[in-house]
Design a protein that fits this description.
52% of the residues are buried. By secondary structure, this protein is α/β, with parallel strands linked by helices. A hairpin with a 2-residue loop joins β10 and β11.
Length: 410
């Protein structure tokens, strides 16, 4: 089988590596001059920054992405975070993530354990947000702020914008796979390892190659046109989102178009700091529920010092975007950092915002459309086709796994 993949983001590279490892011919076309999309490295002042995601894998060496990397033989060393996460309380005291229950009364602790156990087994069927789910059982400011902090860091959403059913799937995965990890070498180490798998299997990756059109014959994808040239295939996989893919073959399925056009993306801001001393002092997530905008912070050099010049530390904060005034949102994030690290010296290396045509996720978590399209042999992967309960890149990996099962690639 010959497969054409549109886009060399993480989803496209994972799909390409899986197909190549199974012995199929793979051609990947990427319009940008580099691969990885929002999961690539950027070199600046000796620091390895990133094009989008933090240098972090939500479930570390145990999760779906790590599993898929092992399956295809991608050589990536993932360093599991220790501790998993720390929470900064309102008074500035830090507590272990697993100890957040100690901030509740004994009655609320027992109630939380009982309700959570029941809800993980019997997920809510009706449409209710995670915030409303928390409020249904608890009137507790700390739990609500922690929910917003976790959702902002992991999904670039407020708890009110995440379906409770999806959040409970995420909590279920957290119990199963545990906490985060940092790939040695950062995001770029993952994408280049996947590219090596594709090329070693005889596949090709073409950068600066813009796909103009998906060729459809008898409601079946038969190939693409790239820079005016026709490339035939048995299978077309798109990593550029449902909407852009639909435009490439002039989709006429009104119901499908209505569905994909109604999906809202998630928006976020990342701030990268360089420091001569540790700011948080560990490799886990630092949740900040009482900050105005910052939701979580990672000091990635605690796991991999090579991501910064010798003696320096790379710190990456993330926040959900809550208004359309991006400049104000950034300034609130910068103010939070001054409040969080009042006596620390650091340099702001880069501020990045992700919205519009370059969002955090094309489909916010819990609202993914899935891999299928109205056209046979045309499928979607990436951040609009994440698997259930998958945080960011873990969701992308789960979506690729779902697709491979559909097309019977073991």
């Amino acid at each position: 089988m010959k497969a054409v993949i549109i886009g060399a983001g993480l989803g496209g590279l994972l799909a390409g590596a899986k197909l190549s490892k199974a012995g199929h011919a793979v051609e990947v076309f990427e319009r940008l001059p580099f691969i990885g999309g929002r999961f690539a490295n950027l070199d600046y002042k000796g620091f390895k920054l990133s094009t989008g995601a933090l240098h972090m894998i939500p479930h570390g060496s145990r999760g779906p992405l790590a599993q898929l990397l092992r399956e295809v033989g991608a050589k990536v060393n993932i360093i599991d975070s220790d501790p998993m996460a720390i929470i900064r309380k309102e008074d500035g005291e830090n507590i272990e993530f697993h100890d957040f229950r100690n901030e509740l009364s004994i009655t609320k602790r027992v109630k939380l354990g009982t309700i959570l156990a029941y809800s993980l087994k019997f997920k809510p069927k009706r449409d209710i947000s995670f915030r409303d789910w928390v409020l249904k059982y608890f009137d507790d400011e700390f739990l609500l702020k922690l929910a917003d902090s976790f959702c902002g860091w992991s999904l670039s959403l407020k708890a009110k914008d995440v379906p409770a059913r999806e959040m409970l799937e995420i909590i279920d995965n957290m119990y199963h796979y545990k906490g985060s990890g940092i790939p040695r070498g950062g995001c770029g180490a993952v994408t280049y390892a996947l590219a090596d798998v594709i090329r070693s299997g005889g596949g090709n990756i073409h950068t600066c190659s813009c796909v103009d059109k998906i060729i459809i014959e008898g409601n079946r994808a038969k190939g693409v046109k790239v820079n005016g040239k026709t490339v035939d295939s048995d299978l077309v996989i798109s990593d550029i989102g449902h909407q852009e893919t639909a435009r490439m073959y002039k989709c006429l399925d009104d119901e499908y178009l209505k569905r994909i056009n109604s999906v809202m993306p998630s928006r976020g801001i990342k701030i990268c700091l360089g420091a001569s001393e540790p700011l948080i002092g560990h490799s886990g997530v630092y949740f900040t529920p009482y900050a105005k905008r910052i939701n979580g912070i990672n000091e990635v050099t605690q796991a991999d010092p090579s991501l910064a010049p010798q003696g320096k530390h790379l710190v990456m904060s993330h926040q959900a975007v809550l208004s359309d005034n991006i400049e104000d949102e950034i300034n609130l994030g910068l103010t939070d950092l001054k409040m969080l690290f009042p006596e620390k010296k650091y340099e702001v290396l880069m501020v990045q915002s992700y919205s519009g045509g370059w969002p955090v996720n094309r489909a916010s978590s819990g609202n993914d459309i899935g891999n299928m399209t109205p056209v046979n042999d045309l499928y979607i992967v990436g951040d609009g086709a994440k698997g259930k309960g998958g945080i960011e890149v873990e969701g992308v990996a789960l979506g690729v796994m779902n697709l491979m099962a559909q097309v019977q690639i073991l």
